[in-house]
Design goal:
401 residues, mainly alpha, 4 strands
């Protein structure tokens, strides 16, 4: 086995070192395209010889299918990726792009005996079966991907600035399925564990996307939901006392009351935040047929509110774990406050996202004080827009109720 490994290394060195041996180089590329951990092990040892001019070879390496059920090949490819970016920063963007793409990709497996009657929506183009995203096969693939990302960030800490735009660009579109959102968000939260330099930005991204989902789902005060995306009423608004002097009030004065309605939706959080989110969020908006194939559901596709509910539950679980564990708790809460100010305070019509901060405040009393100081500072700031100051004042009232 040792001789075979050394022979492959010598063959690669000969192909890459002799520009005239084009036929041998082409055969090498064909062999790598066929896969096999032996070639990746040899390539990892000769990564310093790979140049950007070896375009076909780079494409063959980056074309490795991480979804195949071969942990040995994954480990060999992981070592090769790490060695490539350590020797040639030029390959960093391409390698990170491939790794992030496989964090949110469908995985197929050959059909087993007796699975001929599987729904067509669960089949791939070649008859393969779509694997459940919560299965052990997908978990093993994600473990290999995260190990590779972790090793790259450890080797090149500055790679985080390259990774972040890729994570943002690969975030599922709002029309994609609930399962894609849940899968990608779960992986994003996992990245924060070994890339603390990206934690705040990732939480900002998640809250920003949650706000977009929140305002896109319209709720009926009676408990139903509609498909319209026009004006959004508050959930179970607290009725104001009748006052004859308020008749004929302008639309601007009505908008001024909106933060109070948002406060009314927030005042009941406390220890029951998770239950309230589940009760408040209703199904909304269809997803594409391709997304339904991945999820394996029949009937209508995912709803915007269902995606919101799934992502909210993941974030609540994440906050509960981090805040109870105590490690990095203050940094995480500070990041959530920052995201709250960047997205939630500036947006009207949100009903659920603000529960995340209230949930965290319910974990530790000091966080309630930090939240109040944050809101009061916004109210007192002359540079803060009037709408944000009014919203902050409404949230202050919600904290004391």
């Amino acid at each position: 086995r040792s001789g075979s490994w050394q022979a492959r290394v010598q063959h690669i060195e000969r192909c890459l070192g002799n520009t005239g041996a084009f036929s041998e180089y082409s055969r090498l590329v064909d062999e790598i395209k066929k896969g096999g951990s032996q070639w990746f092990v040899a390539l990892a040892k000769t990564a310093s010889m790979i140049r950007p001019s070896h375009n076909s070879l780079i494409k063959a390496i980056l074309g490795f299918d991480w979804s195949i059920d071969d942990n040995q090949a994954r480990k060999a490819c992981s070592d090769l990726f790490v060695n490539l970016v350590s020797v040639h920063p030029h390959f960093l963007v391409h390698v990170l792009g491939v790794l992030v793409r496989f964090l949110n990709i469908k995985v197929y497996r050959p059909p087993k005996e007796g699975e001929d009657d599987v729904d067509e929506e669960l089949r791939g183009k070649f008859g393969d079966i779509v694997v459940d995203v919560d299965s052990a096969e997908v978990a093993e693939m994600h473990q290999a991907l995260h190990t590779t990302l972790k090793n790259i960030l450890k080797l090149r800490p500055s790679a985080g600035t390259t990774l972040l735009p890729i994570l943002i660009s690969k975030f599922p579109h709002h029309t994609q399925s609930c399962v894609r959102h849940r899968l990608y968000v779960k992986n994003l939260l996992r990245i924060t564990e070994y890339a603390p330099q990206l934690r705040e930005k990732i939480l900002h991204l998640l809250v920003e996307r949650l706000v977009a989902l929140d305002v896109s789902a319209e709720f009926d005060p009676g408990g139903g939901s509609t498909s319209s995306t026009e004006g959004i009423p508050a959930v179970a608004p607290t009725p104001e006392p009748s006052d004859p002097s308020k008749k004929g009030e302008t639309q601007e004065s009505e908008m001024n009351e909106e933060p109070a309605e948002k406060c009314a939706a927030s005042e009941k959080t406390g220890g029951k935040a998770k239950e309230m989110v589940a009760e408040a969020v209703q199904e909304e908006a269809k997803s594409s047929n391709d997304d339904r194939k991945l999820e394996g559901r029949e009937g209508e596709g995912d709803k915007a509110a269902e995606k919101l509910n799934a992502v909210m539950e993941l974030l609540i679980q994440y906050l509960s774990l981090v805040l109870d564990r105590g490690r990095h708790a203050n940094q995480v809460f500070s990041a959530m406050l920052s995201a709250f100010g960047r997205s939630v305070l500036k947006t009207t019509g949100t009903r659920c996202v603000q529960y995340l901060v209230f949930y965290a405040c319910g974990k530790q009393s000091e966080y309630s004080e930090m939240f109040l100081r944050f809101l009061v500072a916004r109210i007192a700031s002359r540079t803060t827009p009037v709408g944000e100051r009014r919203a902050a004042a409404a949230y202050v009232g919600g904290v004391f109720v």
